[in-house]
Protein backbone atom coordinates (compact mmCIF):
# COMPACT_ATOMS: atom_id res chain seq x y z
CA UNK A 1 0.00 0.00 0.00
CA UNK A 2 1.43 3.36 -1.02
CA UNK A 3 1.08 6.59 0.90
CA UNK A 4 -1.44 8.92 -0.74
CA UNK A 5 -2.65 12.45 -0.22
CA UNK A 6 -4.22 12.94 3.21
CA UNK A 7 -5.49 16.44 2.45
CA UNK A 8 -8.71 15.58 0.67
CA UNK A 9 -11.48 18.15 0.10
CA UNK A 10 -14.10 15.79 1.57
CA UNK A 11 -14.06 12.43 3.33
CA UNK A 12 -15.78 9.08 3.29
CA UNK A 13 -18.42 7.86 0.83
CA UNK A 14 -20.56 10.19 -1.26
CA UNK A 15 -23.64 10.25 -3.46
CA UNK A 16 -24.61 12.51 -6.35
CA UNK A 17 -27.60 14.74 -5.58
CA UNK A 18 -30.23 14.44 -8.32
CA UNK A 19 -33.00 17.02 -8.53
CA UNK A 20 -35.62 14.47 -9.62
CA UNK A 21 -35.27 12.54 -6.34
CA UNK A 22 -34.43 15.41 -3.99
CA UNK A 23 -37.57 14.91 -1.93
CA UNK A 24 -36.66 11.28 -1.26
CA UNK A 25 -33.03 12.22 -0.61
CA UNK A 26 -34.10 14.59 2.18
CA UNK A 27 -34.36 11.53 4.40
CA UNK A 28 -30.67 10.68 3.97
CA UNK A 29 -28.62 11.15 7.13
CA UNK A 30 -24.98 12.14 7.61
CA UNK A 31 -24.31 8.65 8.93
CA UNK A 32 -25.39 7.21 5.57
CA UNK A 33 -23.67 9.67 3.20
CA UNK A 34 -20.58 11.72 4.01
CA UNK A 35 -20.67 14.11 1.06
CA UNK A 36 -22.62 14.96 -2.09
CA UNK A 37 -21.85 16.23 -5.58
CA UNK A 38 -23.72 18.26 -8.19
CA UNK A 39 -23.00 19.69 -11.62
CA UNK A 40 -22.62 23.46 -11.14
CA UNK A 41 -24.29 24.14 -14.50
CA UNK A 42 -27.53 22.75 -13.05
CA UNK A 43 -27.53 25.22 -10.13
CA UNK A 44 -25.97 28.46 -11.37
CA UNK A 45 -28.65 31.14 -11.43
CA UNK A 46 -31.31 28.87 -9.93
CA UNK A 47 -33.65 30.61 -7.50
CA UNK A 48 -36.94 30.09 -5.75
CA UNK A 49 -37.95 26.75 -4.26
CA UNK A 50 -35.17 24.83 -6.04
CA UNK A 51 -32.50 27.10 -4.57
CA UNK A 52 -34.06 26.78 -1.11
CA UNK A 53 -34.08 22.99 -1.38
CA UNK A 54 -30.46 22.98 -2.52
CA UNK A 55 -29.47 25.21 0.38
CA UNK A 56 -31.06 22.72 2.77
CA UNK A 57 -28.67 20.08 1.47
CA UNK A 58 -25.52 22.24 1.39
CA UNK A 59 -26.16 23.22 5.00
CA UNK A 60 -26.23 19.55 6.03
CA UNK A 61 -23.60 17.91 3.82
CA UNK A 62 -20.16 18.65 2.47
CA UNK A 63 -20.32 19.16 -1.31
CA UNK A 64 -18.07 19.03 -4.34
CA UNK A 65 -18.88 20.36 -7.82
CA UNK A 66 -18.32 18.26 -10.93
CA UNK A 67 -18.60 20.27 -14.13
CA UNK A 68 -20.07 19.20 -17.45
CA UNK A 69 -19.41 21.96 -19.96
CA UNK A 70 -16.08 23.73 -19.36
CA UNK A 71 -14.65 21.88 -22.39
CA UNK A 72 -11.11 22.11 -21.09
CA UNK A 73 -9.66 20.56 -24.25
CA UNK A 74 -11.88 22.31 -26.76
CA UNK A 75 -10.73 24.71 -29.50
CA UNK A 76 -13.10 27.48 -28.41
CA UNK A 77 -11.96 30.17 -26.00
CA UNK A 78 -12.11 29.19 -22.34
CA UNK A 79 -15.45 30.23 -20.84
CA UNK A 80 -14.10 32.42 -18.06
CA UNK A 81 -17.55 33.76 -17.21
CA UNK A 82 -18.65 30.21 -16.44
CA UNK A 83 -15.60 29.73 -14.22
CA UNK A 84 -16.41 32.94 -12.33
CA UNK A 85 -20.02 31.81 -11.91
CA UNK A 86 -18.80 28.50 -10.55
CA UNK A 87 -16.61 30.38 -8.08
CA UNK A 88 -19.61 32.42 -6.96
CA UNK A 89 -21.70 29.27 -6.50
CA UNK A 90 -18.92 27.77 -4.39
CA UNK A 91 -18.75 30.87 -2.25
CA UNK A 92 -22.53 31.10 -1.82
CA UNK A 93 -22.88 27.51 -0.64
CA UNK A 94 -19.57 27.00 1.13
CA UNK A 95 -18.36 24.42 -1.40
CA UNK A 96 -14.58 24.14 -1.45
CA UNK A 97 -13.79 21.95 -4.47
CA UNK A 98 -14.48 21.73 -8.19
CA UNK A 99 -13.63 19.09 -10.79
CA UNK A 100 -14.11 18.65 -14.52
CA UNK A 101 -13.64 16.06 -17.27
CA UNK A 102 -10.37 15.77 -19.14
CA UNK A 103 -12.19 16.03 -22.46
CA UNK A 104 -14.01 18.61 -24.55
CA UNK A 105 -17.60 19.26 -25.57
CA UNK A 106 -17.63 22.43 -27.67
CA UNK A 107 -16.45 23.90 -30.95
CA UNK A 108 -18.25 27.17 -31.72
CA UNK A 109 -21.24 25.62 -29.96
CA UNK A 110 -22.01 22.85 -27.50
CA UNK A 111 -21.59 19.34 -28.89
CA UNK A 112 -23.62 17.59 -26.14
CA UNK A 113 -21.01 14.90 -25.69
CA UNK A 114 -17.62 14.45 -24.03
CA UNK A 115 -14.97 13.87 -26.69
CA UNK A 116 -11.37 12.66 -26.30
CA UNK A 117 -8.43 15.05 -26.46
CA UNK A 118 -5.59 13.99 -28.78
CA UNK A 119 -2.82 12.29 -26.82
CA UNK A 120 -0.07 14.64 -28.01
CA UNK A 121 2.57 16.87 -26.46
CA UNK A 122 0.90 19.92 -27.97
CA UNK A 123 -2.41 18.97 -26.36
CA UNK A 124 -0.71 18.50 -22.98
CA UNK A 125 0.61 22.08 -23.08
CA UNK A 126 -2.70 23.48 -24.39
CA UNK A 127 -4.87 21.76 -21.78
CA UNK A 128 -2.48 22.40 -18.89
CA UNK A 129 -2.43 26.12 -19.71
CA UNK A 130 -6.23 26.27 -19.64
CA UNK A 131 -6.40 24.35 -16.36
CA UNK A 132 -3.91 26.75 -14.80
CA UNK A 133 -6.07 29.66 -15.93
CA UNK A 134 -9.14 28.13 -14.27
CA UNK A 135 -7.13 27.63 -11.08
CA UNK A 136 -5.94 31.24 -11.21
CA UNK A 137 -9.52 32.49 -11.49
CA UNK A 138 -10.79 30.29 -8.66
CA UNK A 139 -7.68 30.79 -6.53
CA UNK A 140 -7.26 27.06 -5.87
CA UNK A 141 -6.41 23.73 -7.44
CA UNK A 142 -9.11 21.83 -9.31
CA UNK A 143 -9.28 18.16 -10.27
CA UNK A 144 -9.50 16.63 -13.73
CA UNK A 145 -11.30 13.32 -14.20
CA UNK A 146 -9.80 10.52 -16.28
CA UNK A 147 -12.44 10.34 -19.00
CA UNK A 148 -13.98 7.39 -20.80
CA UNK A 149 -13.63 7.40 -24.59
CA UNK A 150 -14.56 5.06 -27.42
CA UNK A 151 -12.04 5.91 -30.11
CA UNK A 152 -8.76 7.74 -29.77
CA UNK A 153 -8.49 11.18 -31.34
CA UNK A 154 -6.24 11.40 -34.45
CA UNK A 155 -2.53 12.06 -34.11
CA UNK A 156 -1.85 9.92 -31.04
CA UNK A 157 1.73 10.33 -29.82
CA UNK A 158 1.51 8.77 -26.35
CA UNK A 159 -0.56 6.36 -24.31
CA UNK A 160 -3.57 7.52 -22.30
CA UNK A 161 -1.79 7.03 -18.96
CA UNK A 162 1.21 9.11 -20.07
CA UNK A 163 -1.03 11.88 -21.39
CA UNK A 164 -3.02 11.99 -18.16
CA UNK A 165 0.07 12.09 -15.95
CA UNK A 166 1.69 14.77 -18.10
CA UNK A 167 -1.38 17.03 -17.87
CA UNK A 168 -1.64 16.61 -14.08
CA UNK A 169 2.04 17.44 -13.63
CA UNK A 170 2.21 20.43 -15.98
CA UNK A 171 -1.05 21.95 -14.76
CA UNK A 172 -0.22 21.13 -11.11
CA UNK A 173 -3.82 20.04 -10.58
CA UNK A 174 -5.52 17.17 -8.80
CA UNK A 175 -7.03 13.96 -10.16
CA UNK A 176 -10.65 12.87 -9.88
CA UNK A 177 -10.03 9.13 -10.14
CA UNK A 178 -12.98 7.47 -11.88
CA UNK A 179 -12.73 3.73 -11.28
CA UNK A 180 -15.48 2.82 -13.73
CA UNK A 181 -13.83 4.85 -16.50
CA UNK A 182 -10.59 2.90 -16.04
CA UNK A 183 -12.52 -0.35 -16.36
CA UNK A 184 -14.54 0.86 -19.36
CA UNK A 185 -11.43 2.05 -21.21
CA UNK A 186 -9.53 -1.13 -20.33
CA UNK A 187 -12.18 -3.22 -22.07
CA UNK A 188 -12.70 -0.86 -25.01
CA UNK A 189 -8.99 -0.35 -25.66
CA UNK A 190 -7.49 -3.61 -24.44
CA UNK A 191 -5.27 -2.72 -21.50
CA UNK A 192 -4.82 -3.94 -17.92
CA UNK A 193 -6.94 -1.78 -15.59
CA UNK A 194 -4.89 -2.64 -12.50
CA UNK A 195 -1.62 -1.72 -14.21
CA UNK A 196 -3.17 1.58 -15.36
CA UNK A 197 -4.44 2.35 -11.87
CA UNK A 198 -1.14 1.57 -10.20
CA UNK A 199 0.66 3.92 -12.59
CA UNK A 200 -1.31 6.95 -11.37
CA UNK A 201 0.32 9.49 -9.03
CA UNK A 202 -1.05 8.95 -5.51
CA UNK A 203 -0.34 12.53 -4.44
CA UNK A 204 -2.65 13.90 -7.14
CA UNK A 205 -5.82 12.03 -6.07
CA UNK A 206 -8.50 14.36 -4.68
CA UNK A 207 -11.45 11.96 -4.63
CA UNK A 208 -12.97 9.16 -6.68
CA UNK A 209 -16.02 8.13 -8.66
CA UNK A 210 -17.61 4.74 -9.09
CA UNK A 211 -20.57 4.00 -11.36
CA UNK A 212 -22.38 1.49 -13.51
CA UNK A 213 -22.22 1.11 -17.28
CA UNK A 214 -23.91 -0.55 -20.26
CA UNK A 215 -22.45 -3.51 -22.17
CA UNK A 216 -23.01 -2.73 -25.84
CA UNK A 217 -20.91 -5.76 -26.91
CA UNK A 218 -18.21 -8.02 -25.49
CA UNK A 219 -15.56 -5.48 -26.45
CA UNK A 220 -17.59 -2.26 -26.13
CA UNK A 221 -18.83 -0.74 -22.87
CA UNK A 222 -20.73 2.54 -22.68
CA UNK A 223 -20.13 4.69 -19.59
CA UNK A 224 -23.83 5.26 -18.91
CA UNK A 225 -24.09 5.89 -15.15
CA UNK A 226 -27.48 4.24 -15.54
CA UNK A 227 -26.99 0.87 -13.84
CA UNK A 228 -25.66 -0.68 -10.66
CA UNK A 229 -21.92 -1.07 -10.19
CA UNK A 230 -20.75 -4.49 -11.40
CA UNK A 231 -18.49 -6.86 -9.46
CA UNK A 232 -15.44 -6.24 -11.67
CA UNK A 233 -15.60 -2.52 -10.92
CA UNK A 234 -16.06 -3.12 -7.19
CA UNK A 235 -13.02 -5.40 -7.32
CA UNK A 236 -11.02 -2.69 -9.06
CA UNK A 237 -11.98 -0.20 -6.34
CA UNK A 238 -10.90 -2.74 -3.74
CA UNK A 239 -7.50 -3.11 -5.43
CA UNK A 240 -7.22 0.67 -5.74
CA UNK A 241 -7.71 1.14 -1.99
CA UNK A 242 -5.22 -1.64 -1.37
CA UNK A 243 -2.64 0.17 -3.50
CA UNK A 244 -3.24 3.82 -2.55
CA UNK A 245 -5.04 3.60 0.74
CA UNK A 246 -8.60 4.85 1.01
CA UNK A 247 -9.76 8.17 -0.41
CA UNK A 248 -13.19 9.85 -0.67
CA UNK A 249 -15.31 8.06 -3.26
CA UNK A 250 -18.71 8.98 -4.69
CA UNK A 251 -21.39 6.84 -6.33
CA UNK A 252 -22.63 8.33 -9.62
CA UNK A 253 -26.11 7.51 -10.90
CA UNK A 254 -27.48 9.85 -13.56
CA UNK A 255 -30.56 8.06 -14.92
CA UNK A 256 -32.65 4.91 -14.42
CA UNK A 257 -32.44 6.04 -10.83
CA UNK A 258 -33.64 3.32 -8.43
CA UNK A 259 -35.13 3.87 -4.98
CA UNK A 260 -32.76 5.82 -2.76
CA UNK A 261 -32.46 2.79 -0.49
CA UNK A 262 -30.78 0.92 -3.35
CA UNK A 263 -28.34 3.78 -3.90
CA UNK A 264 -27.54 3.81 -0.20
CA UNK A 265 -26.73 0.10 -0.36
CA UNK A 266 -24.06 0.88 -2.94
CA UNK A 267 -22.76 3.81 -0.89
CA UNK A 268 -22.55 1.41 2.05
CA UNK A 269 -20.47 -0.95 -0.10
CA UNK A 270 -17.99 1.89 -0.60
CA UNK A 271 -17.93 2.41 3.17
CA UNK A 272 -17.29 -1.28 3.77
CA UNK A 273 -14.29 -1.30 1.43
CA UNK A 274 -12.96 1.89 3.00
CA UNK A 275 -13.30 0.38 6.46
CA UNK A 276 -11.59 -2.81 5.28
CA UNK A 277 -8.50 -1.00 4.08
CA UNK A 278 -8.48 1.64 6.81
CA UNK A 279 -8.50 -1.17 9.38
CA UNK A 280 -5.81 -3.02 7.46
CA UNK A 281 -3.61 0.08 7.38
CA UNK A 282 -4.08 0.65 11.11
CA UNK A 283 -3.14 -2.94 11.94
CA UNK A 284 -0.12 -2.80 9.62
CA UNK A 285 1.11 0.37 11.34
CA UNK A 286 0.74 -1.22 14.76
CA UNK A 287 -2.36 0.72 15.77
CA UNK A 288 -5.00 -1.34 17.51
CA UNK A 289 -8.39 -1.03 15.84
CA UNK A 290 -11.33 -1.07 18.22
CA UNK A 291 -14.41 -2.75 16.84
SSE topology:
Elements: E1 13-16, H1 22-25, E2 35-38, H2 48-58, E3 62-66, H3 80-93, E4 98-101, E5 104-106, E6 110-115, H4 121-138, E7 143-145, H5 160-171, E8 174-178, H6 179-189, H7 193-198, E9 205-211, E10 214-217, E11 220-222, H8 231-244, E12 249-252, H9 260-284
Parallel strand pairs: 1-2, 1-12, 2-3, 3-4, 4-7, 7-8, 8-9, 9-12
Antiparallel strand pairs: 5-6, 10-11
Helix pairs in contact: 4-5, 8-9
Structure, described:
The chain is α/β, with parallel strands linked by helices. The chain has one domain (13-284): Alpha-Beta Barrel (TIM Barrel). Helix content is 40%, strand content 18%. It is built from nine helices and twelve strands. The chain has helices spanning 22-25, 48-58, 80-93, 121-138, 160-171, 179-189, 193-198, 231-244, 260-284; strands spanning 13-16, 35-38, 62-66, 98-101, 104-106, 110-115, 143-145, 174-178, 205-211, 214-217, 220-222, 249-252. Strands 1-2-3-4-7-8-9-12 form an eight-stranded parallel β-barrel. Strand 1, helix 1 (22-25) and strand 2 (35-38) form a beta-alpha-beta unit. Helix 4 (121-138) runs parallel beside helix 5 and helix 8 (231-244) packs parallel to helix 9 (260-284). The longest helix is centred in the C-terminal third of the chain and has 25 residues, at 260-284. The radius of gyration is 18 Å and the shape is globular.
Amino acid sequence: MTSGNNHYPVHGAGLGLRREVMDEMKQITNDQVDFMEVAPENWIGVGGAHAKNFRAFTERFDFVLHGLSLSIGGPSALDEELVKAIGQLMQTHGINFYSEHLSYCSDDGHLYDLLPIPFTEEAVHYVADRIRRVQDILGQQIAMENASYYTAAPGKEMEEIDFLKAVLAEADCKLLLDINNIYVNSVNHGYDPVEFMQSLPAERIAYGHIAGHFNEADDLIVDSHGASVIDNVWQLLDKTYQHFGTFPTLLERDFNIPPVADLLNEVDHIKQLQQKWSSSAAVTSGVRVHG
